[in-house]
């Protein structure tokens, strides 16, 4: 889905370090510093009251590439 705000933060942080927008293919890319770290990726969309925003946790061991998918339901997108 095009134009979805994406926020990425280290799992140990409270605020997002990177903010992106998904492209026309619904994709985004962000390079993070090499080294062992966990990251939280959040689709920053409005959700029904009391429901969490779609998110994924990614563990990076070194400097490898990691592909991640967030699958949004039509219900989540309708609330947007």
Describe this structure in words.
- The protein has 80 residues and is mainly beta.
- Helices cover 6% and strands 29% of the residues.
- The chain contains one helix and four strands.
- It has one helix spanning 74-78; strands at 5-10, 18-21, 37-43, 55-60.
- The protein has a four-stranded antiparallel sheet, with no helix packed on it.
- Strand 1 (5-10) and strand 2 form a beta hairpin.
- The longest helix is centred in the C-terminal third of the chain and has 5 residues, at 74-78.
- The chain is globular, with a radius of gyration of 13 Å.
- It starts with a strand and ends with a helix.
- The model has no long low-confidence stretch (mean pLDDT 85).
Task: Briefly say what this structure is.
The chain is mainly beta and 80 residues long. The protein contains one helix and four strands; from the N terminus they run E-E-E-E-H.
Structural class: mainly beta
Termini Cα gap: 12 Å
Q: Give the overall shape, derived from the CA principal axes.
A: globular
Low-confidence stretches: none
- Quaternary organisation of the protein chains: single chain
Helical content (DSSP H or I, runs of 4+): under 10%
Largest beta sheet, briefly? 4 strands, antiparallel
Mean pLDDT: 85
Order of helices and strands: EEEEH
Number of strands: 4
Helices, by number, come to: 1
Radius of gyration, Cα only, in angstroms? Answer: 13 Å
What portion of the residues fall into strands of 2 or more residues? 25-35%
Strand order of the largest sheet: 2-1-3-4
């Amino acid at each position: 889905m095009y134009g979805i705000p994406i926020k990425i933060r280290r799992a140990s942080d409270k605020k997002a370090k990177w903010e992106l927008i998904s492209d026309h293919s619904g994709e985004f890319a962000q390079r993070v510093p090499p080294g062992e770290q966990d990251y939280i990726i959040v689709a920053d969309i409005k959700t029904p009251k009391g429901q969490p925003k779609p998110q994924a946790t990614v563990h990076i061991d070194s400097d490898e590439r990691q592909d991640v998918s967030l699958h949004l339901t039509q219900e989540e997108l309708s609330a947007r």
